[in-house]
Amino acid sequence: MFPYQKVHELNRLELLVYKYIVGNLNEVENMTIRDLAGEAHVSTTTILRFLKKMNYGGFSEFKIALKQNQNYPTRIFNDSSVEPIQNFFKVVVQEGTFDKKINQAARMINVADLVLFFGVGNSARIAQYGASLLSSYGIYSLPIVDPFQPEPLSDRDFSKTLLIVVSVSGETKQSLQQARYYKESGAATIALTANSYSALNQIVDFSISYDVPQIRNGQINVTTQVPLVYILEQIASNAYHKMIEQPRNDSATDLTDDE
């Protein structure tokens, strides 16, 4: 219903509409435009602008399309994360955007003496996987396993360190604190999030976002981690091949250099 390449053209408010609809298909089917605006915390004008970008003539046309979509047996989702995952891989195949981001992250890894991974909750497990994955390729990498570890009292020089922060929301307090501390201490920083407009993305030097609807079970974020695993595996493989194909030149390459 929503071409994924067009999703990347949405602004912050329009992205809120997209995420709410995809995460609440059954509820939206019975909503008025004002109901939807209230639940998504946007104006009705924002919803109409979003639908226009998705090639719908208006809210009524969208509701008809949604009802038809829900009636197709192959489009009934027991897991609301299935469609975003499918769309994520479609855009990865069709566009070169992610290839450029993967290459940049790999370059930043290759010029670092140490790569640190950080995450909280389920993201902490993915962060540990990322550190283990890089280590399997012979790249010195460690996870920060205690999110409540206090900052060192004395100054540290992390100019040859790269911190990769894994956070679905990009708003976790501990993730923001770690990113700020390491960046202020000279480290290069990368964020891997499901939210292009997160506070974490604004702090770090470089970010890769895979905008999918966030799903919660009470206070626990259970958003799919499939895109993250794919991104980490691509980064690790790319970094390894760059490392064996071209000798590293630390003196001539900056950790955050885009070239």
CATH T-level fold name of the largest domain: Rossmann fold
- Kindly report the spatial arrangement of strands forming the biggest sheet: 2-1-3-4-5
Shape: elongated
**So how many helices?**
12
How many structural domains does the protein architecture include?
A: 2
Main beta sheet strand tally, sense and closure: 5 strands, parallel
**Regions with little confidence, pLDDT below 50 for 5+ residues:** 248-253
How would you name the CATH homologous superfamily of the largest domain?
A: Glucose-6-phosphate isomerase like protein, domain 1
At the first level of CATH, the class of the largest domain is Alpha Beta
How is this structure best described in words?
The structure is a single chain. With 259 residues, this protein is an alpha/beta fold. It folds into 2 domains: 4-76, Winged helix-like DNA-binding domain superfamily/Winged helix DNA-binding domain (Arc Repressor Mutant, subunit A), CATH 1.10.10.10; 93-252, 3-Layer(aba) Sandwich (Rossmann fold). It has helices at residues 4-7, 12-23, 25-28, 33-40, 44-53, 59-71, 82-94, 97-110, 122-136, 173-184, 199-203, 226-245, and strands spanning 114-119, 141-144, 161-166, 188-193, 206-209, 216-217, 220-221. Helix 2 packs across helix 4.
